[in-house]
Amino acid sequence: MTEENPSPNPAEAPVDPLFTHPASPFLRTEAPAPVAFPSPPNAAPTPAIYSTWVIYRTQIEFGLAILAYLMVLVGSVNVLKANPDADWRYYVAVLPVAPAGFVIWLFVRALSRLDELQRRIQMEAFGFALGTTALVTFGYGFLEGVGLPHLNWTYVLPLMAVLWGVGTAIFRWRYR
Amino acid sequence: MKNHLRVLRAELAWSQAQLAEHLGVSRQTVNAIETGKYDPSLPLAFSLARTFKRQIEEIFEVEAG
Question: Which of A45, A51, A52, B25 would be a feasible disulfide site paired with B29, CB 3.0-4.6 Å?
Answer without folding.
Answer: B25
